[in-house]
């Protein structure tokens, strides 16, 4: 699938902070980033929100987010969970091919153990035109999994992730600026006969949307293919051609020898 006209997602307004204090020191929300996922293997969008929250009075107890959709269904409110130094959560959004866009406004509220609360609101986002879903075609060679996806263009950068659902880890992970720079996924550490999920992700950065200068808000369109590692892979088509040509040559030489005699 080729991507034609491509316009980066735009943020229509910036974050505005409003504070409601139960004590003398309200929590601080110093960074908010959003990831919108559009997968080819799921009928819905999903939205991920990350918020860095801290408090001068006491530890942060909970952080919540509310999404109010402009088009389609609202995500409502959900609680974020602490992970990797921030509060983070995902939620399913509207239908993938319903209204055609994932948009809306967000409110992030942080509460600390002392009862202080801060709400960050006014975060509006709407992609002007979304990234088309990438295509993913994979075959196994004698040295690794080769990805055939040169027709995917137009994103800011691309990821190729190999996920092991048994060991809950990524045996391979790549990030490149151009799709043609993706390297063959090697067999290092893979288990013979085990199936893995291979994700190709086209990423587009938002033009803003955070309280600091870090660039973490993304619109992602992704494709998935399940691959099974076979320690004795089937030869590639060109190998068959060489083998067939060699056999034909041997047969021809044998016929000539028989004719001479």
* Element order: H for helix, E for strand: EEEEEEEEEEEEEEEEH
Strand tally, please? 16
Q: What percentage of amino acids are in beta strands?
A: over 45%
Overall mean pLDDT stands at: 76
Largest sheet: 13 strands, mixed
Question: What gap, in angstroms, lies between the N and C termini?
Answer: 59 Å
Helix content: under 10%
Overall shape: it is elongated
Low-pLDDT regions: 1-23, 208-214
- Category by helix and strand content: mainly beta
Reported CATH architecture of the domain at 10-126:
Sandwich
* Rg on CA atoms, Å: 25 Å
Task: Give the CATH topology of the domain at 10-126.
Answer: Immunoglobulin-like
The quaternary structure here is single chain
Broad CATH class of the domain at 10-126: Mainly Beta
How many helices does DSSP assign? 1
Describe the structure.
The structure is a single chain. With about 260 residues, the chain is mainly beta. The protein has a domain of about 120 residues: Immunoglobulin-like (Sandwich). About 10% of the residues lie in helices and about 50% in strands. It has one helix and 16 strands. The strands form two sheets. Strands 1, 2, 3, 4, 5, 6, 7, 8, 9, 12, 13, 15 and 16 form a 13-stranded mixed β-sheet that branches. Strands 10-11-14 form a three-stranded antiparallel β-sheet, with no helix packed on it. Strand 5 and strand 6 form a beta hairpin. The longest helix has 24 residues. It is elongated and about 95 Å long. It starts with 9 loop residues before the first strand and ends with a helix. The N terminus is likely disordered.
